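Q: what sequence does this backbone want?
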């Protein structure tokens, strides 16, 4: 039979789960590692099952039981935080800690403004960011490392619930001195660039999407560099070659001081979608819903009481495909 457990034990458990480390969680909570480990052990005894697997030199990861507990406990902990306001009949406001995942190309342009506006509206929520490539953020969502994420619609599966915020068609960037730069804003064909060196943004799922565009256009690219950093790709293009990207920056400057020019594509090629994603079997917390609303407004989409606004769809992620 299960034993009693405490909210403190649940809070400690949730932080360890999201940090993936007892050491990091103890530092965040400002408690000793021994006290934290003891609380987790007591919670495991109360639940009658192991909640974590210990991974040597890497920390801990949730068991299936632990993942279920995390997804059930986040709304419970949020409700506990709201209880005093409900008793006093005060306005309920989101609080607690929200871990947001974000695909790196989205992060630098969109996320700072979104987080600043969210923090202005909801100062009681502590926002933590998990930034990475598409696959690592997807895995973080599924493993409980983050509660909500901004992703591209590449390589997602039916384990995620997604909401389409916007579509980004592909475009080309070349250096300011490139022979095609004068055509800006274009269009140009991928065939016009077939003999030029391609600088490929080489991230999981992203590379498959980008190389698929060339297949769709019937062009075989000459890949010169495979790079994992969005800004690194732009800096290399400022020196030679070209790249195909989706996120347009409002300026042509690169970190090295060079300049690139964006060109529209003549081919009608599939865009990527920017989506809000959560694990399909989670119950969204109030803070996650509030963050989602700020994201919609930042992209010009207004909440309409629950139904998708024009251009916005609530869907289970496709089991395969790029966008």
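A:
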């Amino acid at each position: 039979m299960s034993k009693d457990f405490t909210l403190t034990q649940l809070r400690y458990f949730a932080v360890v789960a999201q940090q993936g480390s007892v050491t990091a969680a103890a530092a965040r909570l400002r408690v000793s590692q021994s006290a934290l480990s003891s609380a987790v052990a007591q919670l495991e005894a109360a639940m009658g099952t192991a909640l974590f697997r210990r991974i040597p030199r890497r920390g801990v990861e949730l068991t299936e039981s632990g993942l279920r507990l995390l997804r059930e406990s986040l709304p419970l902990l949020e409700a506990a935080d709201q209880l005093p306001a409900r008793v006093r009949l005060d306005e309920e406001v989101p609080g607690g800690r929200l871990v947001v995942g974000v695909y790196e190309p989205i992060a630098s342009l969109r996320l700072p403004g979104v987080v600043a506006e969210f923090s202005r509206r909801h100062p009681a929520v502590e926002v933590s960011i998990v930034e990475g490539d598409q696959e690592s953020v997807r895995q973080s969502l599924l493993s409980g490392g983050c509660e909500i994420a901004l992703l591209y619609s590449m390589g997602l599966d039916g384990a995620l619930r997604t909401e389409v915020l916007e579509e980004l068609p592909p475009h080309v960037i070349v250096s300011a001195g490139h022979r095609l730069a004068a055509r800006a804003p274009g269009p140009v064909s991928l065939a016009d660039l077939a003999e030029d060196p391609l600088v490929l943004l080489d991230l999981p799922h992203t590379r498959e999407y980008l190389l698929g565009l060339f297949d769709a256009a019937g062009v075989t690219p000459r890949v010169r560099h495979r790079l994992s950093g969005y800004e690194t790709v732009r800096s290399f293009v400022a020196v030679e070659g070209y790249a195909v990207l989706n996120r347009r920056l409002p300026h042509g400057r690169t970190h090295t001081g060079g300049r690139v020019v964006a060109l529209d594509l003549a081919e009608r090629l599939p865009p990527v979608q920017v989506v809000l994603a959560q694990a399909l079997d989670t119950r969204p917390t109030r803070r996650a819903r509030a963050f989602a609303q700020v994201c919609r407004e930042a992209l010009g989409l207004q909440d309409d009481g629950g139904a998708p606004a024009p251009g916005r769809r609530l869907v289970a992620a496709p089991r395969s495909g790029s966008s």
